[in-house]
Amino acid sequence: MDLTEWNNFLEAYGGVDASKGTFSVFTEMQVEHGKLQGYIKPILNHLEIARWKQAHENPLKVIWETIVAGVAEILKNQPKDQIAARKPLSGDVSNPDAGIFATISNLLRNAYIQALFPSFEGYLGHDGTANGNITINHAP
Question: Which one of 16, 31, 54, 80 is separated from 7 by 20 to 30 angstroms, measured CA to CA?
Answer without folding.
Answer: 80
